[in-house]
Structures
1.
Amino acid sequence: MKLCMIGTGYVGLVSGVCFSDVGNTVYCVDRDEKKINSLNNGIVPIYEPGLEEILKKNYKQKRLIFTTDLKKAVLNSDIIFICVGTPTKKKTNSADLKYVFSVAHQLKKLITKYKIVITKSTVPVTTGDKIEQILKTPRKKNLVDVVSNPEFLREGEAIRDFIYPDRVIIGTKSKKANKIMKSLYLPIIKKTSRYYNTSRRGAELIKYASNAFLATKISFINELANLCEKTGVDIKDISSGMGSDQRIGDRFLRAGPAYGGSCFPKDTRALIDTGKNFNTDLSIVKSVVKSNDKRKILLTKKIATLLNNNFKNKTITFLGVTFKPNTDDMREASSIPMINFLNKKNCKIRYYDPTGIKNEFKNMKNVKYYKNISSACLKTDLIIIHTEWNDFKLLNFKKLVKKNKFKIYDMRNIYSPQKMKKSKISYFGIGR
Ligand SMILES: NC(=O)c1ccc[n+]([C@@H]2O[C@H](COP(=O)([O-])OP(=O)(O)OC[C@H]3O[C@@H](n4cnc5c(N)ncnc54)[C@H](O)[C@@H]3O)[C@@H](O)[C@H]2O)c1
């Protein structure tokens, strides 16, 4: 099939690359010329394990085309995916749909024969109706089917998630569109996953409900971790004890910092906003957002406590600053408010991240990027293990720090408190 992905970010690029790998011709369009130029020069603009290899293979075979020319891409495609960002609108909870609607208006001028237009971007329930209103003028009534196909891939595991998804959700009442979508996904759904055809509004809401539920799980275990700290219980025992109940499941049940990233924070907020628009109080989701916001403050305060509220001449090392491992994505990473706070207190902040230097900290006078773990840790006062990259799982801290007194704040509970105690290292985890 001939596909067009509009928006070549984490979702559009991965989906486009994976669809091309099963034999489709895919036009990946972006308005960001720099991004398209790098892709055409074989440079992948995001860190996503495994992506580069598949991309290069399909680019060589001419099944992948990177372009800023939307018109050419649309005219040559039968199926058009909208994969642009839907960030939170400033000072509100609502999803900013300006990129989505701008694409819809552009498409309106370009569609002259039957196309399926799909929202892969996460959009609030009824957005598909609005896109349809834009595209389906009386003259073009039968020229387009607007379908919702939310994406569930996780950054860092995106390729695997796309090729072996737990489910593929197609929201449409059009039999024609559903048949075409099913054949597009056939190479994927043949493997393990389930294919659900539901209403368009249903598909839109499934995505938000899923993300809000996962955010709830994380916030739940994070609050329990606070209780564990007060009662001398290890949160890891709670996670294993609870998680082995199949009705609960052990995934997303590990205590840590506030959840971040490009999805959970904005999607929980947007769901609350949708509830408000439809006069429905989503009190659980509201509590989750509040709990997560509080957690950012709580963990920052804990850092201050570990420094005895004495910030003068203190060196603090962050190991990992992205919101999770195996991605370079810094959107709403919990390291940002922590580092902002410590920077204001004039601490010397060092950070090492396997994905390199971060724009977020470029203009902060007290924050420095270090090229390797050992230089970042040398003679430091406090090591904060913020992201659980594999690189941080087997470190010999005494050898790295080379001084007697230092503390470790392990926000991912990677290390054993008992072993640390034996090594006479001042070690603190989460909920233990
Ligand atoms: N990142 C994830 O893990 C993930 C997972 C599932 C769903 N989603 C959803 O998918 C959507 C995209 O997320 P993302 O992380 O890939 O975003 P992103 O910011 O990485 O990429 C969006 C891209 O769209 C481009 N763009 C914006 N307007 C455009 C236009 N008019 N024409 C062409 N290109 C345009 C931007 O230049 C950018 O490259 C969001 O709605 C998000 O919630 C993201």
2.
Amino acid sequence: MLSDVNAAGTSLDHDAIIIGAGASGISALVRLRELGLRCRLFETGDGPGGAWHWNRYPGARFDSESYSYGFFFSPELFAEWEWKEHFSGQPETEKYFNYVIDRFDLRKDMQFSSRVTAAHFRSEENAWEVSLASGERYRARWLVAGVGPLTLPQLPRIEGVQAFAGEAYHTARWPKHPVSFEGKRVGVIGTGASGVQTIQEVAKTARHLTVFQRTANYCAPLKNGPITPDEQKQVKASYEELKRRVNSSRAWFLHTPVLRSVFDVSPEDRERFFEDRYNARGMGIWQGNYMDLVVDERANALISDFMHRKIRERVRDPAIAEKLIPWDHGFGTRRVPHETNYYEVYNQPNVTLVDLKATPFKRITPNGVETSDGFHEMDMLIYATGFDAVTGAFEAIDIEGVDGQKLKDKWSKGPVTYLGLMVNGFPNFFMPAGPLSSQGNIPRTSEYHAEWVARFVRYMDEHGLVYAEPKLEVEQEFMEHAREAQNRHLSSRVDSWFTGVNTNVDGRTERRVMQYRDSADEYRRRAEAGVASGYEELIKR
Ligand SMILES: Cc1cc2nc3c(=O)[nH]c(=O)nc-3n(C[C@H](O)[C@H](O)[C@H](O)COP(=O)(O)OP(=O)(O)OC[C@H]3O[C@@H](n4cnc5c(N)ncnc54)[C@H](O)[C@@H]3O)c2cc1C
């Protein structure tokens, strides 16, 4: 414990309550425990890993390089753990999370199968009262919600969605028992990042796979592979270098944009560069490309055209290739799924693509799916229809700040935060990797947040303070900055979860500011300026 200001000596159950056992919650637990705080972490699932606990669908894996995704807080951990693949699959990643919590003896402060239903700020105590679905209640000075940006699965709005009598799964609630596709007629609804990973796997064994596509996405090769013993040695030797690289990149990835315009190079050099990025491992084609591709329409048209050509080269039937080409948005303006032989799946005789723009859903029946041009009989339906993203998991908790204000009401037109980390009117409350925080390679963001929060809590304790919230004008200024940064990007003109549009969720047809689109550097500059000023941006007492 830091001191008796916020620990023993009060009637609080804990110093800090943390929600969520994903990368964000675990990072926060590690850092706050280092301060000696009495912490309790609550998690809905029955194990750690967050996204990697829930998304156990076949083919689920990282798009971030494994060694750039894992925790960096311990050089010893980095040296010990051997990632098997450059982009780890879900089973291995779930093992990693279990290894980490046992390695650092975190399990004793974690409570699984414990969903937080409400968190109310009690002004008389300057503390949060947190309620669980079981009815248990706990009070703590600090509340850290690491509830995740992609947490609440969303089903599509289709008549009869619950009527299907065969096997039905959502990718983000995949069962722990094995699921076989062999000899079955399987329908996959959705072609975002999870859908693409699922489709590649199901196509291998299903008797017939029908892919229902509403929005075609630009998919780019992942080029995954095992990490060879030599590569393993190089990875192990590069801990400091890796840290330096991700910290100096734009979005905390190993890839970062080239600081040149695509118009500064000859068409031949440009083509060579695109080709090189397309064939290289990981997200380079998206995150490590010319800097103007995602902000300038003319530049974007060049990379979009390149990607269109790639789809036409890889898909034999020109009519199917045209359906797989995204005509309604430019490359990189929505989440780019990374794939392994995804386009080749459509050359297989056991795979059919249904373009829902041309032939929309009519209804789901006990036996299958009816679209405007006919009936598709199915044995299994897989919903790869994503999430109530970014704000959904926060709004699912009844979070009440000072004077009875509800977070859900404050965010009724979109999230409003300071640094994506704190909210005016909701004191002593932190959201690692929260809405409008620096995005990209998320564990890097949330590890930074965990450090920031720990430094701040230490400061509060050293100064005998027990209450902190961002000033309203500071929050407004940050929101203006975030809005301006989002509007600079072409993605701001596209409906997607990046801009908060989700036709499957009520009231979510208007675009919102959801993510921080300026660089990680600018983000840290702002966050550190606050620290240097003695947290002048915050009301403290
Ligand atoms: C399939 C998939 C692949 C991805 N790949 C990448 C990638 O390669 N790179 C990358 O950077 N990001 C990736 N992401 C994004 C992913 O969300 C983040 O990497 C990371 O999981 C975020 O960590 P987190 O701890 O903030 O949230 P999560 O990992 O989502 O963990 C949040 C946890 O909070 C729990 N929780 C939520 N609400 C409550 C409540 N009320 N009570 C108790 N517990 C609660 C949830 O059950 C969950 O376990 C991927 C996401 C998915 C779904």
